[in-house]
Specification:
By secondary structure, this protein is α/β, with parallel strands linked by helices. Helix content is 27%, strand content 35%. A hairpin with a 7-residue loop joins strand 13 and strand 14. It is an enzyme of class 4 (lyase).
């Protein structure tokens, strides 16, 4: 049986890779993308992959705002979600100590999650890179003395680096939420979904957003996320991305019927089952 081909942002061993394996319950074949815009383009191409995975928010660093905009314009569908417990380690070539390090490289989100750790090491320069695992790979490939990387356990093992300090993130219950994305025609209908993601803008009627939120409450729907995004080309007007949790599809459909007259450009990005946390 052929492995599932899944596009990820990053290289082998990164958190996207771990999340993909955890969600599908198997070792997937990864298709690396250097950035999130490229990730979306690759997922759209049916000759390349079966789907992809995209980080959307972190419990410490917050939302990855550009990804909400990419999703709106992509035509892709959210098939599911997964929450991955993120453990960030400081690693370097074997024999190196933290006192030897002049720079530490990693993804901006990882640096943000671990910035408090480096308050005690003001002489270490934190350098933003495209990916956590790629930072570790670069240290190994280029035999960079005096340079460390922030990444998970797997890259240290994969690239032969030594962990100098374990779990250096500032909050230990650090989680990243990922969306599993597919092309519309490849999505298998899920009749028992209990979560949905959608976006809309509101009409110019006073209290429109308040009315919409009240409709969700009256339908006993939990608003687990709301994120505002500027509408390009229209100053000071916004789209709202919302994630909703409910008991069953009928609740969700009834709520959509009630709010439709108060929204503009509403689009459901996906209906799926609430994700689990992988530790």
């Amino acid at each position: 049986m052929e492995k599932r081909k899944i596009v990820i942002q990053g290289v082998e061993g990164c958190f996207h890779h771990l999340a993909a394996n955890a969600y599908y319950g198997e070792d997937v074949e990864i298709i690396p993308a250097g950035n999130f815009a490229t990730l979306v383009e690759l997922i759209q191409d049916e000759s390349v992959c079966d789907g992809g995975i995209m980080a959307i928010e972190n419990s410490i660093a917050g939302s990855i705002l550009q990804n909400y905009g990419l999703l709106q314009d992509s035509g892709l569908v959210i098939e599911g979600e997964i929450f991955l417990r993120i453990k960030q380690n400081l690693m370097a070539l074997p024999g190196q100590k933290i006192e030897d390090l002049k720079e530490v490289h990693s993804h901006p989100m990882a640096i943000h999650q671990c910035r408090a750790f480096f308050h005690d090491y003001p002489d270490i320069k934190l350098v933003e890179m495209e990916d956590t695992a790629l930072s570790a790979k670069n240290v190994r490939d280029n035999q960079l003395m005096g340079v460390g990387a922030i990444a998970g356990d797997y890259p240290a093992e994969l690239y032969g680096l030594e962990i100098i300090a374990e779990e250096i993130e500032s909050i230990k219950d650090n989680q990243t939420r990922f969306f599993l994305l597919k092309r519309q025609k490849d999505v298998v209908p899920n009749g028992g979904y209990n979560k949905a993601s959608l976006y809309f803008s509101t009409s110019h009627k006073a209290g429109s957003l308040s009315y919409i939120l009240d409709c969700f409450a009256k339908e006993n729907i939990n608003l687990s996320k709301i994120q505002s995004l500027p509408i390009p080309g229209i100053n000071w007007q916004y789209f709202f991305h919302v994630d909703l949790e409910f008991q069953g599809p009928r609740q969700f459909r009834d709520a959509l019927d009630k709010i439709s007259a108060y929204t503009k450009g509403m689009k459901v990005l996906g209906t799926y089952n609430k994700g689990i946390v992988i530790t």
